Amino acid sequence: MKYGINVTNFGEDFTPRVLAELAHEAEESGWDGFFIWDHIQSGRPRVDAGVVSPMVDPWIALAAIAMRTERIRIGPMVTPLPRRRPWKLARETVTLDHLSNGRLTLGVGLGSPPGTEYEQFGESGEAAVRAEMLDEGLDVLIGLWSGEPLTYEGQHYQVKGATFQPRPVQQPRIPIWVAGMWPNKPPLRRAARYEGAFPLASDPMRSLKPDDVQAIVQYVSGHRESHKPFDLVLAGTTSKDDPGETSERLSALANAGATWWQETLAPWLGSLEDMRQLVHKGPLGA
C-alpha cells in the first residue's frame, strides 16, 4: 500500500506557500503522495458570526507543489468536473503533468455539497444531470489529451474538430480516480472504466471497514474490462498516539484490497504545527 496526505484547500493556515512546503516536507518524510481538496467554498458560510473560511485555488496550489517536489504523486481529491469546462481542465491538467514530470493523478467526482458547489451560482445541483456532465466531460478530456482532432456531440458538451498539443507526459493518459459514496454503485461502475476508485462512506460518522473494501473490490472487478492495475484509494485519520493500532488497521485495509491510504489534514483536526508533526513522522507514524 502507498501512503499520501489528503489536505483541505480551505482554512486560515493553508495558504499556497504553506501547502507547497508541507508537500516538500511530506516527500522528505517518506510519503508517496500529496493531494488537495477542490472546493469552491468550504460549506455554508457562518453568516451569523460573519465568518467565511479562506480558500485557495487548488490548481494554482498544485503548481506550487509541483515546483517544490520531485518524486511524490500529486493531484486534486477530487475536482468536480461538472462545474469545470473540460477543455479548460484539459489545458490545466496537461500543463501540470508536464510541470511535475508526469506525477499528476486526476481525481474526479460530482462535487458536494451541491448547494454551495453549484446551486448558489445558478447551476444545476441535480445528481443525474451532474452525472451526465461528468461522463461527457471525461470523454472530452480524454479526447483532447490524445493530441488528435476531436469532434464530440453530447447533450452538455460539443467540440468541433479541436486538437490540443502537447500530449501529457504520462501515456496512454493521466491516471483518473473516480470518487463516490459507498454503497452507491453507479460511481464504482464509472470508476471501473478508469485507473482507480476513491470510495467514501455515505455516513460521515463511519469509516470504511475491510469488509467494505472487499465488497468494493469485488464489485469493481466484475465491471472491469482491463487487466491493468487498478487503485482503491481510501482517506481518513489514524491514531496519532498508537502506531501499532494504525499499522494493524491499515494492514487489514491493504489485505482487503486498498492500494492507497491518504491521511487527512484539516483545520478541525488540530493546529498547523500538529499537522506538520504528523507529516514529519511519515507513514504509519514511524
Overview of this structure, please?
- With 286 residues, this protein is α/β, with parallel strands linked by helices.
- The protein has one domain: TIM Barrel (Alpha-Beta Barrel).
- Helices cover 36% and strands 19% of the residues.
- The chain has helices spanning 16-28, 58-68, 86-99, 114-117, 127-145, 186-191, 210-221, 243-256, 272-281; strands at residues 2-7, 33-36, 73-76, 79-80, 106-109, 150-153, 158-162, 176-182, 196-201, 231-236, 260-265.
- A 9-stranded parallel sheet has the order 3-2-1-11-10-9-8-5-4. It has a two-stranded antiparallel sheet with strand order 6-7.
- Helix 1 (16-28) crosses helix 2.
- The radius of gyration is 19 Å and the shape is globular.
- Mean pLDDT is 94; it is low at 44-48.
Spatial order of the strands in the main sheet? 3-2-1-11-10-9-8-5-4
On the 0 to 100 scale, the average pLDDT is: 94
What is the ordering of alpha helices and beta strands? Answer: EHEHEEHEHHEEEHEHEHEH
What overall form do the CA principal axes indicate?
globular
Number of domains: 1
Distance between the termini: 15 Å
Figure out the total of helices.
9
Tell me the fraction of residues in β-strands, as a range. Answer: 15-25%
